[in-house]
Structures are given as C-alpha cells and as structure tokens.
C-alpha cells in the first residue's frame, strides 16, 4: 500500500458519519473549491470505498489516491 502523502489544499473529515452524509458533504465542499485543487477526504464509513469512486466517475473528478488503515479511509480527489 502506498503511504506517500499527496499534496492537498483542502481537508474534509467525515469520521463518525455514515452514508449518505460523507458524500453529501463531499459534494458541498467540492462546489466551494477551484478546478484543479485537491481535497483530502477522511472517512470511517466502509461504504465510502464504493461511493467515493462512483461519485468521482459520475462527476468526472479525479480520484488521485486512496488509502485505508484499521480506522480510516483516505481519498485524495482533484476537482474537475
């Protein structure tokens, strides 16, 4: 697993929240960002492993990297 840190301009921590809240907050945060900026999303809901890639594919955002450990899922998204 790649543990390299991806440079990001924004952080959204949705720890403790469950579907659909992390995706709803992600959508709102991306609306506030500029094209090309990178967001680090931190989540604890295992459903995000399915939802975040589908969200990116549907809205054409770039999922730069994703990592997980025992407690957190991390996603780096580049705004389209």
Structural commentary:
It is a single chain. The chain starts with 9 loop residues before the first strand and ends with a strand. It has helices spanning 21-32, 48-59; strands at residues 10-13, 38-43, 62-68, 73-78. The longest helix is centred in the N-terminal third of the chain and has 12 residues, at 21-32. The chain has a domain at 7-32. The mean pLDDT is 95. The chain has a four-stranded mixed sheet, with helices on one face. Helix 1 (21-32) links the parallel strand 1 (10-13) and strand 2. It is an alpha+beta fold and 80 residues long. It is globular. This is Sulfurtransferase TusD.
The number of strands is 4
Q: How far do the termini sit from each other?
A: 26 Å
What is the succession of H and E elements? Answer: EHEHEE
Oligomer: single chain
The largest beta-sheet arranges its strands as 1-2-4-3
Secondary structure class reads alpha+beta
Query: What spatial form do the alpha-carbon principal axes imply?
Result: globular
Helix content: 25-40%
Q: Overall mean pLDDT score?
A: 95
Q: With helices defined by DSSP (H or I, 4 residues minimum), what is the helix count?
A: 2
Radius of gyration computed on alpha carbons: 11 Å
């Amino acid at each position: 697993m790649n543990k390299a840190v991806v440079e990001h301009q924004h952080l959204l921590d949705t720890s403790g929240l469950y579907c659909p809240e992390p995706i709803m907050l992600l959508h709102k945060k991306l609306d506030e960002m500029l094209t090309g900026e990178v967001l680090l999303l931190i989540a604890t809901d295992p459903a995000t492993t399915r939802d975040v890639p589908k969200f990116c594919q549907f809205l054409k955002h770039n999922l730069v990297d994703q990592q997980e450990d025992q407690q957190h899922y991390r996603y780096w998204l580049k705004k389209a």
